[in-house]
Design a protein that fits this description.
This protein is an all-alpha fold and 199 residues long. It has 8 helices and no strands.
Length: 199
């Protein structure tokens, strides 16, 4: 048990420095094509943590597998796409980076506490934050060709990360409560770091 805890804490310590490169523009705007779009959420710590946290929280808080597991992930993926399309169209939203950081704080706390929300409330909470994640991508893609393929890759990666979070969350539903709490606390820590950088 102590060895597993040490490994988990070491992993968290290794992930926190990624926060410095997790914000919009980390890849220098080199977004083009499906593969690049697919890889982007996997290489940005903020997007990676948020998407896994959505799936993790959905599984931990679900009363039953169907359809509770899907409300928040579907809302996040759908609103991420809507936000990206808005960003591509030139829609300007204030405080995009602080809102992305705030999303990590909130999602991490939801994982830690396993708060159960009604389906509509869960969809609204994650959907609002997903818009800001999507807008950040849309801004980056605004001057690029092949934006549709890139967005398709991003959405596919988002769904995959949600599925990974759901799988871990479902496996941990009846395991030791500390492990999901440590994971949620790591997301909170990343969000706090990014928020401090953004304000």
């Amino acid at each position: 048990m102590r060895h597993s805890t040490s490994k988990t804490l070491a992993l968290i310590a290794l992930l926190l420095p990624l926060a410095a490169s997790a914000h919009t523009g980390v890849d220098g705007g080199l977004h083009h094509g499906f593969v690049t779009g697919f890889m982007h959420p996997l290489t940005g710590a903020d997007h990676l943590a948020a998407m896994i946290a959505v799936g993790l929280w959905s599984a931990l808080a679900a009363r039953r597998a169907w359809p509770d597991l899907l409300w928040a992930p579907l809302a996040f993926a759908g609103m991420l796409l809507a936000g990206a399309l808005a960003g591509l169209a030139g829609v300007q939203l204030p405080a995009v980076e602080p809102m992305i950081a705030a999303s990590l704080l909130v999602l991490g706390l939801l994982v830690v506490t396993r708060v159960r929300l009604p389906a509509v409330a869960a969809m609204v909470v994650v959907g609002v934050f997903a818009v800001f994640h999507g807008v950040a991508h849309g801004y980056e893609l605004a001057s690029e060709e092949g934006a549709a393929l890139t967005l398709a890759g991003m959405v596919c990666a988002t769904v995959l990360l949600h599925a990974i979070g759901i799988a871990f969350g479902w496996a941990l539903r009846h395991a030791n409560a500390w492990l999901p709490r440590v994971a949620g606390a790591a997301v909170v820590g990343l969000g706090a770091t990014l928020l401090a950088q953004a304000i």
